[in-house]
Design a protein that fits this description.
Blueprint (H helix, E strand, L loop, with lengths): L44 E3 L2 E2 L5 E2 L2 E10 L2 E8 L8 E4 L19 E2 L2 E2 L30 E3 L6 E7 L52 E3 L2 E3 L17 E3 L6 E2 L2 H8 L10 E6 L2 E7 L4 H12 L14 E10 L2 E11 L6 E3 L1 E4 L8 H16 L4 E2 L5 H20 L13 H8 L3 H10 L3 E4 L2 E7 H13 L23
Parallel strand pairs: 11-13, 19-21
Antiparallel strand pairs: 1-4, 2-3, 4-5, 5-6, 7-8, 9-10, 10-23, 11-12, 13-14, 15-16, 16-17, 17-18, 18-20, 22-23
Length: 494
Amino acid sequence: MAEVVSPVPGAGRREPGEVGRARGPPVADPGAALSPQGEIIEGCRLPVLRRNQDNEDEWPLAEILSVKDISGRKLFYVHYIDFNKRLDEWVTHERLDLKKIQFPKKEAKTPTKNGLPGSRPGSPEREVKRKVEVVSPATPVPCETAPASVFPQNGSARRAVAAQPGRKRKSNCLGTDEDSQDSSDGIPSAPRMTGSLVSDRSHDDIVTRMKNIECIELGRHRLKPWYFSPYPQELTTLPVLYLCEFCLKYGRSLKCLQRHLTKCDLRHPPGNEIYRKGTISFFEIDGRKNKSYSQNLCLLAKCFLDHKTLYYDTDPFLFYVMTEYDCKGFHIVGYFSKEKESTEDYNVACILTLPPYQRRGYGKLLIEFSYELSKVEGKTGTPEKPLSDLGLLSYRSYWSQTILEILMGLKSESGERPQITINEISEITSIKKEDVISTLQYLNLINYYKGQYILTLSEDIVDGHERAMLKRLLRIDSKCLHFTPKDWSKRGKW
């Protein structure tokens, strides 16, 4: 995603990767010693009462990240172990199970993390283990250029796609841990520092681990942020942060917003409208030409993206904002950003559907649109890693449906089995070959049969795909796309 100049007044220029600090809830001294009475301090772990999705009480293990005192009443900011950080919250003393408390391990006076000072002291099992699902070398993977054919198999499968034997490729599926913020293809590598929003846990400290904005009012919606976002410090103590839904400028009160609306003449995102069908429109925004809007968009998005880090420069990025139109204007639904020039074939840097519009098909529509742009550009693309948990699920679902749509649409010619290669699937869909292979492996379609690799589509997979496609009502119509790609390598400073 994009790079952002810190909006904090008087803030100096920071090095890339450094996150702006906002004055959130009071944070106790991480180095404070445990009192003789066994006082609860940062780093303690213990069961905490919460309600699950079925509205039932449960006691998951949680870690105390901060303690504050309001009018003599103590509140504890907790992170539920093995749960997504969006569920972190302030709880009262009554919800803590003090009988099973685990105190943090003692460390040196100047705690460090990844060799950098400023992180809080360690706690039990502090080290984070990345889960990487590695495909066994014995897993059959078809050669990308080997032809595939279709035939029935003992009546148990409707279609099977076969590929000629070729050299085996070792490939890694996408991680399956839904709560992982570091899911990626292959072995995790050091974060890229070329300008997009990449994860850099060396700067992950007690401040940035805690939500600092209580509530955001955006048009007719009130949003509860999931994660930290470096809005100006003086705004983090407000009960509600008010945003103009068209230019995304932030204000400290409803009166400030109303005064701004009398002067703001925008009724849609700045930039060019490159797609419209029905009430859905997409606008292309240049991060250099519309810097203020791009920065405000990144600050809003950071409230719902934990796996990215804000940088200071939006110039190298394009932003594609999806909107819904009504009589009042074009209302933002979601967006994705992409680098103007990507050496790794990334067609998406960050992608987000705002919470009020989630679970309505807009996420897949954003993904589909990103690949439509790649088709016009004549390239294959892939999203920048790591993907968030929700992003991973959306991409997996889109890749699966798109590839199955291709395989099920194959027709035989002159009585012979229809054939297709991995490369052809990639060219038709603009999905990168590695993502095609990992999706086929994730769906468990690849089998070795009579000396060749085949892709077997069982009745369950076919029926499930057909049911899913019936529910997928929102689709991109390529005829409504008016987009001319630019060769950014020849434009100097863009």
